[in-house]
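4.2 Preliminary Data

To establish feasibility before requesting continued support, the project team ran the inverse folding procedure on a target of 248 residues. The structure was first converted into the token representation described in Section 3, and no sequence information of any kind was made available to the design step. The complete token record follows.
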């Protein structure tokens, strides 16, 4: 029983340290284990030594840290206090920084849009929000230029932060492989920045050259790129169409 209570107190201390650092992910304290503990698991463990009110305080702090994190896709309207969710699948990068607040739109009787970065109301007829002191794009490029490097697989010297080649969203590489999928649906290689084809990756799974640090985000003049299928992909589509007609 004493060992169990000690383990629970260890998890409690890890939670307090994690939240104190402004983070929101609670990782398993076991050696050589990077498994993230879900909210349900954390709540179940801490319920042994904490009251319901204390647990709610912990969960509220986790939510606050998530909202403040760079990777959060939720922002709060500074006028009405309602949370917005960013749509990463809009066709143009400029549109993805423009978010409509339904509550403000209903109260004012017109479409009210805000800048995702500076949270001020969007000025009509502008690619950017229209405020000269809103430098979110320059700040993102500066982050890409100054971030550290790490080894991913067998490749060293890869920047730890990349911008999605489709939507420009900054992605932080934490662990595991180099192939990933952005929230906008774009799959790409974190090392060489090549996008995935219809079926196969254009880069090698074992080794590929490190792409230079990005010095620009996807331009607002370009729509989402059209992926041209290869001969192998054409054959796969033809086979899939034939197989579906055969079994129907």
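Position-by-position output of the design step:
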């Amino acid at each position: 029983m004493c060992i169990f209570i000690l383990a629970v107190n260890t998890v409690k201390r890890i939670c307090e340290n994690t939240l104190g650092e402004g983070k929101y992910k609670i990782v398993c304290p076991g050696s050589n284990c990077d498994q993230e503990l879900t909210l349900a698991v954390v709540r179940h463990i801490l319920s042994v030594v904490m009251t319901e009110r204390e647990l709610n305080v912990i969960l509220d702090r986790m939510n606050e840290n998530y909202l403040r994190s760079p990777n959060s896709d939720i922002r709060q309207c500074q006028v009405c206090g309602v949370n917005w969710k960013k749509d990463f699948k809009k066709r143009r990068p400029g549109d993805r920084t423009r978010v409509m607040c339904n509550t403000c739109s209903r109260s004012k009787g017109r479409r009210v849009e805000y800048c995702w970065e500076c949270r001020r109301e969007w000025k009509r007829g502008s690619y950017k929000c229209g405020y000269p002191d809103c430098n979110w794009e320059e700040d993102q490029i500066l982050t890409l230029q100054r971030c550290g490097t790490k080894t991913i697989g067998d490749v060293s010297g890869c920047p730890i932060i990349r911008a999605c080649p489709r939507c420009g969203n900054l992605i932080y590489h934490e662990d595991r492989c180099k192939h990933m999928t952005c929230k906008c649906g774009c799959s790409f290689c974190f090392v060489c920045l090549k996008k995935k084809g219809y079926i196969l990756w254009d880069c090698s799974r074992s080794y590929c050259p490190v792409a230079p640090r990005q010095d620009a985000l996807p331009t607002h003049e370009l729509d989402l790129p059209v992926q041209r299928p290869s001969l192998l992909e054409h054959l796969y589509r033809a086979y899939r169409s034939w197989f579906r007609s055969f079994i129907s």
